[in-house]
């Protein structure tokens, strides 16, 4: 795909802060899940 074609498919432009918060939330959820599976 050419860059122009890809650019047209972008519908969401989150801020860096939103992206980092989402990554942190996902990481925390993953760690909680691992903790429950292995320490329970």
Describe the overall structure:
The protein is mostly helical and 40 residues long. The protein has a domain at 14-40. The chain has two helices and no strands. The protein has helices spanning 3-8, 16-39. The model has no long low-confidence stretch (mean pLDDT 87).
Helices and strands, in order, run as HH
* C-alpha geometry: elongated
Characterize the main sheet.
none
Counting DSSP H or I runs of 4 or more residues, the number of helices is: 2
Q: How many strand segments?
A: 0
What is the terminal-to-terminal distance? 47 Å
Residue share in helix:
over 70%
Task: Supply Rg.
Answer: 17 Å
Strand content: under 5%
Q: Which segments are poorly predicted (pLDDT under 50) over 5 or more consecutive residues?
A: none
Class of secondary structure makeup: mainly alpha
Overall average pLDDT: 87
Q: What attributes characterize this protein structure?
A:
40 residues
Q: Layout of helices and strands, plus pairs?
A:
Blueprint (H helix, E strand, L loop, with lengths): L2 H6 L7 H24 L1
Give a short synopsis of this structure.
The chain has 40 residues and is mainly α. The protein has helices spanning 3-8, 16-39.
């Amino acid at each position: 795909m050419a860059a122009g074609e890809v650019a047209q498919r972008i519908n969401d432009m989150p801020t860096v802060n939103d992206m980092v918060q989402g990554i942190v939330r996902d990481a925390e959820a993953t760690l909680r899940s691992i903790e429950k599976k292995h320490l329970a």
